[in-house]
Specification:
globular, mainly alpha, about 0% strand, about 70% helix
């Protein structure tokens, strides 16, 4: 009797294992192929062109852990931007002089003066906040010769994580379209920059926010902000979504706990950064505040078009990129600020009226911020591509529009730059160069305008349908009363 009772169980288990393995292969085989292909293509994209920020990251990480003298182990040309900086940054000497002039306590002045970048842990990246040291440091675990390879592999892993998150928490179509966008629009930058790190943190924050896990959502949003400041405007969409979903009273402490979590995370990391180096903590703020319009920004395209009306256009190579200066710079900057404020207010009003959800509001906010910004570097597309896939999934119009945008972005960088590798001034003086950038920016503007129109039209259509339904109900009630 015991044999009879045991054998069916054994034969059933052995017979289901091949089916389970086959089902798993059918279910995840395509995802595995897409992830491998995406990782390989992004890796080849970095080593298929001569532009890369990875050597800069290696200098930052080496200087942070060993001080500026540790840069002697690397080629002089690679880290000369740190040892002999050409751009203006706030310095420790300037801070000390300002504190002395304003009669700060001697202890504080001595503490700031002791934060010399020649010592370990006191040389922070001048362009990025302190947490950026984490992705810069991981490749240091290998030989310096293999640093770029290790960094590229680590960023491919981050891209695969983004794919997995979209696959698990959105859909396979969203994950596949994100892989397509990253390969087309981020082919030359995804593995050569660290922008995928704050991008994946933003995506995780949205996933938690959609599921009403607000403490975790605000915590991950804060981590994204301290890696790169671009995601700071997303605090408003998150706060609106959390407050609209909250069932707590306005006087309840729990209603504002997620915001407190966000503030605590940001303040804690910033205070820690200030303790290491006040100069290095403030440098990213002055870095972006003092930059003129970068040549790929939408404002630079306007200044280029004004050149045909007789306004001069001065080209400069500053802050590691091409920048343009014109007599209309102040006017264009004012127009940009107005468009930024009006666009953000309108987007957040749509969200407040429950016409767009958290993900769509975050996507539109990022698009407006980037379009009206002073800088539009090619890696900026990595900030919003996962959100584009999350919101649009496989909508044909979305896929076509964003693929066209990605092709133009990749054509500009690195291919147009590579045409005149040894003379950036020549490429910038070529009308074709400016025309391609203007075309890309026009495409970007049309996408943003169409999205705003689509959401607004949807809102007006729903409102009209509601009014018509109410009118029909009123007429129906009037007929019944007349019959009565």
């Amino acid at each position: 009797m015991q044999k009879v009772s045991v054998q069916p169980h054994i034969s059933e288990s052995t017979s289901t294992r091949p089916k389970e393995s086959k089902n798993l292969l059918l279910r995840y085989g395509l995802d595995l192929l897409v992830m491998i292909a995406m990782g390989v293509l992004l890796y080849q994209g970095l080593f298929g062109q001569r532009f890369s920020d990875v050597p800069v990251y290696q200098c930052y990480a080496t200087a942070f852990w060993g001080g500026l003298p540790a840069l002697k182990t690397l080629p002089w040309e690679q880290c000369s931007f740190l040892t002999q900086p050409q751009d203006s940054f706030i310095s420790t000497a300037t801070l000390v002089h300002w504190m002395q002039a304003n009669h700060f306590p001697a202890g504080i002045i001595h503490f700031v003066a002791s934060q010399t970048p020649n010592l370990p842990l006191h040389s922070l990246p001048r362009e990025y906040p302190l947490p950026s040291i984490i992705p810069f440091t991981i490749p240091l675990l290998v030989s310096p010769y293999w640093y770029q390879v290790a960094f590229a592999i680590s960023m491919s892993v981050v891209a695969i994580i983004i794919y997995g998150l979209l696959r698990c928490f959105r859909s396979r179509w969203a994950a596949c379209t994100c892989a397509l966008y990253l390969v087309i629009g981020g082919w030359a930058t995804a593995d050569g920059r660290f922008d995928l790190v704050p991008s994946v943190l933003t995506l995780v924050a949205i996933i938690f926010g959609v599921r009403k896990r607000w403490n975790w959502a605000f915590a991950f949003l804060a981590l994204s902000v301290v890696f790169k400041f671009y995601s700071l405007p997303l605090l408003i969409p998150f706060l609106l979504a959390q407050q609209l979903a909250s069932g707590e009273k306005w006087t309840s402490w729990r209603r504002f706990t997620p915001l407190v979590v966000f503030v605590v995370v940001c303040v804690a990391i910033m205070v820690f950064s200030l303790c290491l180096s006040i100069e290095g903590t403030l440098a990213p703020l002055s870095y972006y505040g003092n930059r003129p319009f970068q040549v790929e920004s939408a404002a630079a395209s306007i200044l280029w078009l004004s050149h045909f009306l007789g306004y001069s256009l001065d080209l400069r190579y500053t802050y590691g990129s091409l920048s343009v200066v014109s007599p209309l710079t102040s006017l264009v900057s004012l127009i940009n600020s107005i468009l930024l404020g009006a666009g953000l207010i309108y987007i957040w009003w749509l969200q407040l009226r429950n016409k767009i959800d958290l993900a769509a509001s975050c996507l539109l906010t990022l698009l407006i911020v980037i379009f009206t910004g002073k800088v539009f570097s090619p890696q900026y597309v990595l900030w919003f591509m996962p959100l584009v896939a999350y919101v649009g999934e496989r909508k044909p119009k979305w896929v076509v529009a964003w693929c066209l945008f990605g092709v133009l972005t990749t054509y500009i960088f690195p291919y147009l730059y590579m045409l005149f590798m040894d003379n950036f001034t020549s490429i910038s003086a070529t009308p074709f160069f400016y025309a391609i950038i203007a075309l890309r920016n026009l495409c970007f503007f049309c996408i943003i305008a169409s999205l705003l129109f689509s959401y607004s039209y949807s809102y007006l259509r729903k409102k009209t349908a509601l009014v018509n339904a109410q009118n029909k109900e009123v007429k129906g009630n009037g007929k019944r009363k007349g019959k009565g």
